[in-house]
What we know:
Layout: H1 3-6, H2 8-16, E1 42-53, E2 56-68, E3 71-84, E4 87-100, E5 105-113, E6 119-125, E7 129-136, E8 139-146, H3 155-167, E9 172-177, E10 187-201, E11 204-215, E12 222-226, E13 232-238, E14 243-249, H4 251-254, E15 261-262, E16 269-270, E17 283-290, E18 304-310, E19 313-319, E20 324-325, H5 328-332, H6 348-357, H7 365-379, E21 382-383, H8 392-398, E22 400-401, H9 403-416, E23 421-433, E24 436-450, E25 453-457, E26 472-478, H10 485-488, H11 491-495, E27 499-506, E28 509-510
Parallel strand pairs: 3-15, 21-22
Antiparallel strand pairs: 1-2, 1-14, 2-3, 3-4, 4-5, 5-6, 6-7, 7-8, 9-10, 10-11, 11-12, 12-13, 13-14, 16-24, 17-19, 17-27, 18-19, 20-25, 23-24, 23-26, 24-25, 27-28
Helix pairs in contact: 6-9, 7-9, 8-9
Amino acid sequence: MSFSSRSCAISKCALLFSVLLVLALPARGQAPAAVSPTVAAQSLEDRWYQLSLGGKPCGSFHEWVERQGETIRSMTETEMSVGRMGQGVTLRTKTTFEETARGVPLRAEIVKTSGAAPVRCTWTFTATDMEIADEQADRRTVQRRPLPAPGWLPPYAADEFVRHRLASGAKELRYVTLDPESGPDAVQVESVLKGSTDAEVDGRTVRVTEWSTKTSLIERPSAEFMSSDGVLVRSTTDLGVGILESRLTTRAIATAATAPVEIMARTFISLTGNARALSGSRHAELEVTAKDSVLATLPSAGAQVFSRTGAGAARVMIDADASSIAPPADVADARFTRASVMADSDDPAIRALAQKSLIGCAALPLARAEALRSAVNRYITNKNLASGFATASEAVKSRSGDCTEHAVLLCALLRTQGIPARVASGLLYVPQSGAIHNAYGWHMWTQAIIDGKWVDFDAVLAPDGPRFDASHILTGLSAADGASIDSDLSRIVDLMGDTAIEVRSIDGKPVAASKGSSK
Length: 519
């Protein structure tokens, strides 16, 4: 059983919603072993999986492991085609993780393609920390992060750990690792044996054990079916918009052409009461509940205050004109002001757009932030859903995109002026969108620190109107620094398909429930 196959369904969550899917090591401080280019690589594992969502094929997952001298490389390739209200988007990710045969991490590389050009992230490990370099075209940003607490395992070491535990008859597995597709934060994995059954693999029946696996990335468990030699045969994860399944198969079947699987239309949350007055409103009171009675804690930041009323319920208050005190740690956090691979504020075209947009603008930070918000709305003239998650500089070049491009471009423009900024993800009330009406849909906007407070700015809203309104629900925040954006926004997966919203009041007026107003 390999780490990457066991994590297939979970790590795909991060890839799918970017926008977005494990461990005490001796001699960690030793110098990386040199690998002679004349040493032939030995293949240790090579497997293909077909991915499907809601019963429809949507892509492939390829994992293989090779050894060259004392270096072991665990590699994966993922490709998924999804639909966004009729527009297809293909998401591709390649990862490589190098470690020594003794389990010492050396280097990892992640290449993601969701915008016009791939984004490459390289991790270089030392005895105490890791250097993270994000690159796109000729732009490169570097940051350092501490290693996870001692006891974590790189991919192949995790593979060996699990194999040994299975051979000893273990019924529970617990370990900590890093998942390159989900960012540099440690991932805790827990698997519990549920029983055994038969499974079909390319026309033959094999005996498998069933495991329920949870990770710290999302709350929802995956069902994983393992062969007697520890190979993942099949896994399923309920993403709320359908069951994401990976199934062991041949390369030909895994890579067969597939039509994009529509997911965006499935993510809307319908309302039972007519809430059309939300659009443009200044105040709203909502009741948010989890259908499984376990509601994740949402942020209280910017215009939003989240108050839990029970394990599975909460009151959410939105005051579009309000802001929240920025903690000292946020004010001092360099991630909110420096250029990143996603919010590449050092790009000359972005700096030129900022300068042009602020001609004649007052020097006050709030006035400048509002001027930039309006400028983004006017600048992005081709508003569409064709981009997966483009960088700010890509949005400047194409002048196209949806809410993610608006949010990331505004974030970058604000940073050119020294205004700390981050992206916010959540929900936006949608009166009508095709066959969808009176519902909340997933959305992204921007927050900036103005006079010591986090303030919301939505560049999708009309340029001559208010910067924000009470039709938003905040679910996640990210520095858009490339290293953490997937894990920062992974809360979306926990909420999809499991959340009910009741609008209690809009601008102080109660909202009565009515039938026939949902989609």
